[in-house]
Amino acid sequence: MGVVFLTGCGVDTDGRASAAAPPSALAPPVLATSTPTTTAPTTTAPAATSTTSATSTTTTTTAPPAPPAPPAPRDCSGTPVVVFGNSTDSVTGTNLADLSNAWPAYLQVVMSSDPRLRGVTIRNNAKPGVTMHVPNPWSDAPGQRWTADIPVLFADVPPEQRAGTVVILAPSIIDLQLLEGDVDTALLGFFAAVEQLRGLGIGTILTLPMNPIVEDSLMRFTYPWLPERMQEFNDRLDEQQLLLYPTSPIARDDVRPALGDPVFYDDFRGIDLQGAVVEPDGMHIDTDGAAEIALTLGERLGDLLAQVCAEPA
After folding, report:
1. CATH number at residue 213
2. Does residue 68 belong to any structural domain of this protein?
3. What pLDDT shows up at residue 238?
4. Is residue 305 a contact partner of residue 111, using CB atoms and an 8 Å limit?
5. How far apart are the C-alpha atoms of 200 and 197, rounded to whole Å?
6. Distance between CA 91 and CA 306 in Å, rounded?
7. Per-residue pLDDT tens for 66-115?
8. Cα separation of 146 and 144, whole Å?
9. How far apart are CA 244 and CA 229, in angstroms?
10. Which distant-in-sequence residues (6+ apart) come within 8 Å of 19 by Cβ?
11. Containing domain of residue 225, as a range?
12. pTM of the prediction?
């Protein structure tokens, strides 16, 4: 299986499309019954001579053949999909333990409705506060960095299963925050995680662009250079054709560097470090944003899995 490089979160400082429905069942062809058509006899009587004429015509109409039945769905039970990300990939509300409204959960719904596939499993390994590689001073537990989490997660996975695994990397802005905008070092951390996955024999690695922040977000006020650094990070990965798509689907399409469309953030209710509920912060997405990411990603992931999952027995 080839390797394909195809969003994230920081630390607070204080569906427009729809998934394709399976084709409806085709009605059986209808063949028209052959029916003879007869012209009634006619009689003409000129000058004592009588002539009788009768004509019979048969017409048969046949419906075109029915199109072939769609192929049996590919078996993806041996092709797990694992997501690495941050809080923007794991929560859309105040309950940090509830992953049911994060975009990987919505992605599971999209994949389960794809008639080309069966047995798709999306595992969400995204965690709030996690970095790609930079030590996190707020919480530097081993599982709070991709490069510490990856070896542990795949330690007991057999090599053949690793080869069939699809990993989705959703880079986080927290590395840029902690590195004061140093894109070079943030990219080194990203590639350190990629090399770990390669060394473990992971079959397919897909990379998403960093999700943008909203123009009037507190994060942009605190780090005014952040949108430009995020854009540079995405552009440099895209120049190497490593992004699944160059711009996040929740970004506005009228500005550069990319900024988030508020409609995908405005219903989020976050929590601060003391556990108090706060208003939308312009960085964490809401359920609309999660659905938009899942629908956009689902179309591309479905095309990939339709090629790499096992053919039906």
Report:
1. 3.40.50.1110
2. no
3. 97
4. yes
5. 5
6. 29
7. 777 777 899 999 999 999 999 889 876 655 556 678 999 999 999 999 99
8. 7
9. 19
10. 109, 110, 113, 114, 295, 298
11. 80-308
12. 0.77
End-to-end CA, the chain: 19
Structure-block tokens of residue 273: 């470090």
Residue range 103-130, pLDDT digits in tens: 999 999 999 999 999 999 999 999 888 9
265, 259 Cβ separation under 8 angstroms = no
Residue 45 in any domain: the answer is: no
3-state secondary structure the chain: CCCCCCCCCCCCCCCCCCCCCCCCCCCCCCCCCCEEEEEEEEEECCCCCCEEEEEEEEECCCCCCCCCCCCCCEECCCCCEEEECCHHHCCCCCCCCCCCCCHHHHHHHHHHCCCCEECCCEEECCCCCCECCCCCCCCCCHHHEHHHHHHHHHCCCCHHHHHCCEEEECCCCHHHHHCCCCHHHHHHHHHHHHHHHHHCCCCEEEECCCCCCCCCCHHHHHCCCHHHHHHHHHHHHHHCCCCCCCCCCCECCCCCCCCECHHHCCCCCEECCCCCEECCCCCCCCHHHHHHHHHHHHHHHHHHHHHHCECCC
Residue 89 and residue 48 in contact, taking contact as beta carbons nearer than 8 Å: no
Query: Does some domain include residue 275?
Result: yes
If one counts every other C-beta atom within 10 angstroms of the C-beta of residue 16, the result is: 11
Q: Quick one: tokens of 305?
A: 């899995």
130 domain-assigned: yes
- Tally the domains of the chain: 1
Distance, C-alpha 80 to centroid of its chain: 14
Look up residue 201 and give its two tokens.
């024999």
Torsional sign, CA 169, 230, 279, 275 = positive
CB atoms within 10 A of CB 138: 11
